[in-house]
């Protein structure tokens, strides 16, 4: 049986059925800091602690992550939907204007009050189609009690997970 090519629209419709958490990935090179909302994030291995993010090669953050060799994944709590929207829609120079943060060991911003974070140094870059998969070794992580902000079928969701 011959395989049938999948259309971009069909693929996107199928992927909208995958419930995911919401993160803000941050990075820094020199004095330039950048952050953007991401859900293409996953744990790779616990030993050594490693994660991955997928970034479109045309995204503003792509060359910054590539140049800095670092990123921080800030995992958002249920009450942080407006933060996710800010980092998705605001101009890059405005995204950090009302957000307190500190520099992690990689130099990337760790946002105050997030549900969890993993600060990473890039260990490997893999190109696949329009995206680069950045695999990062975790340098520091942290977490707090709370419920995660979810995303499903183009909308933010409460997964009903009690802290």
Poorly predicted tracts of residues: none
Gyration radius over CA? 16 Å
Strand content: over 45%
Largest sheet: 7 strands, antiparallel
Computed structural class: alpha+beta
Cα shape: globular
Report the CATH superfamily of the domain at 8-39 and 60-122 and 138-153. Electron Transport, Fmn-binding Protein, Chain A
* CATH class wording of the domain at 8-39 and 60-122 and 138-153: Mainly Beta
The helicity comes to 10-25%
Kindly report the oligomeric state of this protein: single chain
Span between termini: 48 Å
What's the tally of helices?
Answer: 3
Structure description:
- This protein is an alpha+beta fold and 163 residues long.
- It has a domain at 8-39 and 60-122 and 138-153: Pnp Oxidase, Chain A (Roll).
- It is built from three helices and twelve strands.
- The radius of gyration is 16 Å and the shape is globular.
What topology does this entry show?
Blueprint: H1 8-15, E1 20-21, E2 23-29, E3 32-38, E4 41-46, E5 49-56, H2 61-68, E6 70-75, H3 81-89, E7 101-103, E8 109-111, E9 116-128, E10 131-143, E11 149-152, E12 155-158
Antiparallel strand pairs: 1-11, 2-3, 2-6, 4-5, 5-10, 6-9, 7-8, 9-10, 11-12
């Amino acid at each position: 049986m011959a395989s049938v090519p999948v259309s971009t629209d069909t693929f996107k419709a199928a992927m909208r059925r995958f419930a995911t958490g919401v993160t803000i990935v941050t990075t820094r090179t020199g004095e330039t800091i950048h952050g953007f909302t991401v859900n293409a994030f996953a744990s790779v291995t616990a030993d050594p602690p490693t994660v991955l993010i997928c970034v479109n090669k045309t995204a503003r953050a792509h060359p910054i992550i590539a140049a800095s060799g670092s990123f921080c994944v800030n995992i958002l709590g249920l009450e942080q939907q407006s933060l996710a929207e800010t980092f998705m829609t605001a101009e890059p120079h405005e995204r950090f204007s009302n957000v307190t943060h500190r520099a992690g060991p990689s130099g990337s911003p760790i946002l105050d009050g997030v549900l969890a974070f993993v600060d990473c140094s890039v260990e490997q870059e893999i190109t696949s189609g329009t995206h680069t998969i950045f695999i990062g070794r975790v340098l520091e992580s942290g977490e707090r009690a709370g419920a995660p902000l979810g995303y499903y079928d183009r909308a933010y969701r409460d997964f009903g997970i009690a802290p």
